[in-house]
Amino acid sequence: MFARTKRLTLRPWWPEDAETLTRTIAHEAIAMKLARMPWPYARTDAEAFLSLPRGAAEPRFAILAHDGDYPRLIGSIGLRREGGVHELGYWLTPGAWGHGYATEAGRMIVEIARHALAVKRIEASHHLDNAASRKVLTKLGFREVRREPHYSLARGGDVDCAVLALDLDDGEDMASFPIAA
């Protein structure tokens, strides 16, 4: 599945993305904001990520910005299902922070979840010291449901986190958004 917004293309990850993924994500500032990212991050970590199996209701996209001469990889976004819960996860490379890309990509994922996957509820979490991620989630309509510690691989221990949820309304008219299988 591919999806496109005014400034972004969301496309599946491919094995040949390993080198570019490593260059794009391998920043300590990113690792300290994520639960499952090791630090330091190496090409073997990218290859392992790219080979992870995923279910049909677990889209995982590379985010490419096409606001220049050539599309450039700026991050990743997707849904992961664990224990009956669909969890939204995302990251952007530091040079892409503060431009609204995470919110734009997040809106697309919410629409895909609602209309293409018939997901009823999405959860997402953020480290309490990551106010920017909270801002993205609240712009998408997520509301805090609890606080709990989550283990952070890069930090090597538990980090206080907020868990937010978004209940998707079936009664909403389908938004116009371009996707292709």
In short:
The chain is α+β, with helices and mostly antiparallel strands and 181 residues long. 25% of the residues lie in helices and 35% in strands. It has helices spanning 18-25, 28-31, 43-50, 101-116, 131-139, and strands at 2-4, 8-12, 60-65, 72-82, 85-92, 121-127, 143-152, 157-167, 179-180.
Q: Can you offer a commentary on this structure?
A:
- The protein has 181 residues and is an alpha+beta fold.
- The chain has five helices and nine strands, in the order ββαααβββαβαβββ.
- A nine-stranded mixed β-sheet has the order 7-8-6-5-4-3-2-1-9, with helices on both faces.
- α4 (101-116) links the parallel β5 and β6.
- The longest helix has 16 residues, at 101-116.
- The chain is globular and about 40 Å long.
Present the secondary structure layout:
Layout: E1 2-4, E2 8-12, H1 18-25, H2 28-31, H3 43-50, E3 60-65, E4 72-82, E5 85-92, H4 101-116, E6 121-127, H5 131-139, E7 143-152, E8 157-167, E9 179-180
Parallel strand pairs: 5-6
Antiparallel strand pairs: 1-2, 1-9, 2-3, 3-4, 4-5, 6-8, 7-8
